[in-house]
Amino acid sequence: MPAVRISREGLERALAHACLSHHDRDRHASAAAWKAELAASPVRIQRDPERSTNLGELPHRAIQIGLSGAAVDRYVDEWILGLTDVTALAHEAHALVRAGQPEAADAKIPAETPYPLPEHISAWIAATL
């Protein structure tokens, strides 16, 4: 299972050209306007509940980014900086959870921090910290 490291430029370019995967009445004038944006965008984003090691819902949401068309080509050819195999870490954390030691599993998982986005991108994708 690889962890993918991509360039800041690539991530921000993808987000700047993204469309929300759902119609947002505060952002889109109509469902038709959203559908037109969706059809033209090579990037989709959605937010899902973030989960704890025990699969409990956390108070913040995770972003999922889907790429298609030209965005896939740029991702593969330009944005990827490296891959790290985290299979052993995932197996180790899973084994700790199964052994009733979720805190030990959490300690193995790298800490996540909010990603600071330029204001225009935050506004475009309706991101909040």
Outline of this structure?
The protein has 129 residues and is α+β, with helices and mostly antiparallel strands. The strands form 2 sheets. The chain has a 3-stranded mixed sheet. The chain has a two-stranded antiparallel ribbon with strand order 1-5.
Summarize the helices and strands and which ones pair or pack.
Blueprint: E1 2-6, H1 8-16, E2 18-20, H2 31-40, E3 43-51, E4 57-67, H3 70-79, E5 80-85, H4 87-98, H5 102-108, H6 119-125
Parallel strand pairs: 2-3
Antiparallel strand pairs: 1-5, 3-4
Helix pairs in contact: 1-3, 4-5
Pfam family, one: DUF4291
Describe this structure in words.
- The protein has 129 residues and is of the alpha+beta class.
- Helix content is 43%, strand content 26%.
- The chain contains six helices and five strands.
- It has a three-stranded mixed β-sheet. Strands 1-5 form a two-stranded antiparallel sheet.
- Helix 2 (31-40) links the parallel strand 2 (18-20) and strand 3.
- The longest helix has 12 residues, at 87-98.
- The protein is globular and about 50 Å long.
- The chain starts with a strand and ends with a helix.
Count of helical regions: 6
Structural class: alpha+beta
The global form is: globular
What does the largest sheet look like?
A: 3 strands, mixed
Main β-sheet, spatial strand arrangement: 2-3-4
Pfam family, one: DUF4291
InterPro entries: DUF4291
